[in-house]
Amino acid sequence: MADLQDISNEKIRQEIEEFVENPDEIERNIETFARVRPLMQEIAAALIEGDDGTVDALTKQALEDKIDALEIMDDGLIAAMGVVGIKFRDNYIFVPEVLACARAMKAGMAYIEPILSASGVEPLATVIMGMVKGDLHDIGKNLCIMMLRGSGFNVVDLGVDTSDDEFIDAVEEHSAPILGMSALLTTTMPNMGKTIEAFIDADMRDDVKIMVGGAPVTQEFADDMGADAYGKDALECVAVAKGFLSVQA
Amino acid sequence: MMKSNVDWGARFISIGENVHTTRVLLRKGKSIVTHEDRESISYKGLDNETKYLVIPEAFKERQEYKQGQIKHVMIAVTMAMSGKECSEPAIDYLHTLARKQDIAKASYLDVNVDEISYKLDEQKRAMRWLVESLQQISSTPLSIDSSNIEVIEVGLAAYNNDMPRPLLNSASLERLDALELAKEYEASVVVTAAGDSGMPEDVQGRVANASKMVESALSKGFTLDTIFIDPLVFPASVDKTFGSHALDAVAELRGKYGPEIHITGGISNVSFGIPGRRLVNEVFMILMVEAGADGGIIDPVLSNPAEVFSMDRESDSYRMAEDVILGRDEFCQKYISAWRSGNLDVAK
Q1: A193, A222, B259, B295: which could join B264 in a potential S-S bond, CB 3.0 to 4.6 Å?
Q2: Which pLDDT value is given to residue B238?
Q3: How many CB pairs (< 8 A) connect A and B?
């Protein structure tokens, strides 16, 4: 088993020591960062700082050094986003800081994405996202989309006030394995249940995993409606979406 | 725009937001204590005596509790309506929340029971009960607030018409029938800048939507002084243009409709996602008034206008909060770093 001292980058060591408290998460992060090469650790450290200029320069350098694009994404960018997620969940950092990290992620992905798509590497999966019928409050949903894209998902954003048919058509058109619905109002929240029923009526419920979220939504309510999962914030949304994939794999 | 001879501490029309079922206390915050072996909310009564509201076991199964949050108003309303032994302390808790806002000179008490349950019948029952109960102890008019128009109607129907006009919160292009309801119950009305199929994206969207609502209200016979425009305040942390969108829309709407119409807004929305929220909220109150607003939906006990409008506007803290609101502090970096190092003048 790896030890904290096996991580060469001091900044990454500090981050894990100071901000990661859950023993499983400590172990997982130490394993990851002790395994990856020093340049990937540097990229990760810059991303955690929200330093898009450095992520940009180091990603470019890594590609010039003939490091595989997929490795840069997994070991540098995505590994770093995992730490960002934990710090946000545990209230060590705040919304604008997460957005700065997302911008840094985007700076790196600007080099990685074209290479991956040219070499036929697919995004993790396509996620359809939308606010339910009647709901126009989409700031939380937009945060989720930013985080999903930053984590390697292809996201189709249906915007606000989405009808059952729009959700169904989008899932069908993009063969999307995951659907995310959000509601910010108690009045529109029950429309999630109606959309789930519409998927059952269309005989498509088994084709798609459905996750729900939004301020008034709870796990109990998600269960009641027959959703597959609930996420309380943008980072749980990413974790839930990844969870769906690992079950399918 | 703000006239120097106006005492905004006295004139600011605060819509007190404290009896709202979305309100939360943090379990690790200082008002949650163990009293006689039971986890309780500690609060000051009107004579400054310390009182306790025991948190019933049933609420500890709930997800928000497990995530460290106590929805204290939702809990108190549920307890108060239960008719059980615990009703009385819960009623006292709610009445204290309301009376403290009276004392802080709130112009309206906003009541919202949306999170009591997702069942419409239970929301209606809670709204009726709460409106009747608050009117027994407070003579401040109520602002009847719900995302469901049927719940608003129940609140207005329960309202005692011997009191000054209530406020309906809110009507918008996606909910035009709320204007009819306000008319029927002789309520003043909050009209928001929400569009009929989406949120406004900029200043012009806000002005256009709000103007349609104002015109519609005027055509139904509302006078300017019974209309409250809410330009919609979005978090400055999410996009650096959001603070200015609301402020610029306020300035434009004030210019367009003159001095009589009211302009308000959900002040605390601006500080979502950042620490040291109270300071940002209070600076935003001042900037809203400077832009032409004459009130806001606020916690008048925490951010008492009399104190807010006498704040030192030359301090570093003021300037940093202003920079966050006006989008001059990218990703709120300077503000958050000052907060971390304890260099901000905010309540700990």
Answers
A1: B295
A2: 87
A3: 77
Give the bridge partners for B33, in sequence order: B40
Residue ranges and CATH numbers for the domains of chain A are 4-118 (1.10.1240.10), 126-248 (3.40.50.280)
Which distant-in-sequence residues (6+ apart) come within 8 Å of A28 by Cβ? none
Contact check, Cβ <8 Å, B238/A143: yes
Query: C-alpha angle B245/A146/A210, rounded to 5°?
Result: 115
CB of B219 less than 8 A from some CB of A = no
Residue B4 confidence (pLDDT): 59
By the CB < 8 Å criterion, does B272 face chain A?
yes
| Interface contact flag, A186 B235, Cβ < 8 Å | no
Residue-range definition of the domain harbouring residue B143 = 8-22+107-340
Q: B333–A96: do the CB atoms touch at under 8 Å?
A: yes
Does a structural domain hold residue B311? yes
Measured between beta carbons, the chain B residues lying within 8 angstroms of A18 are: none
Residue B284: inside a domain, yes or no?
A: yes
The yes-or-no verdict on residue B1 having pLDDT over 70 is: no
User: What is the least distance, in Å, from the CA of B69 to any CA of chain A?
Assistant: 13
Express each pLDDT in B136-192 by its tens digit: 999 999 999 998 999 999 999 999 999 999 999 999 998 999 999 999 999 999 999
* Chain B residue with minimum CA distance to A185: B147
CA torsion through residues B242, B243, B247, B250, sign: positive
**For residue B336, what is the domain's CATH number?**
3.20.20.20
- Range of weakest confidence among A30-39, A214-223, B24-33, B305-314: A214-223
ipTM attached to this prediction: 0.88
Residues of B in contact with A94 (CB under 8 A): 237, 273-275, 332, 336
Using CB atoms within 10 Å of the CB of residue B279, give its burial: 0 to 12 exposed, 13 to 18 middle, 19+ buried: buried
For residue A94, give the amino acid letter: F
> A190 contacts in B (CB within 8 Å)?
118
**Overall number of domains in chain B:** 1
Residue B348 has pLDDT above 50, yes or no: no
With CB atoms and an 8 Å threshold, state whether A188 touches B147.
yes
For residue B251, tell me if it sits in a domain.
yes
Please name the member of B67, B147, B237 whose beta carbon is closest to the beta carbon of A186.
Answer: B147
* B114 Cβ under 8 Å from any chain A Cβ: yes
Interface contact B199-A188, CB threshold 8 A = no
Cα distance from A119 to chain B (closest Cα, Å)? 35
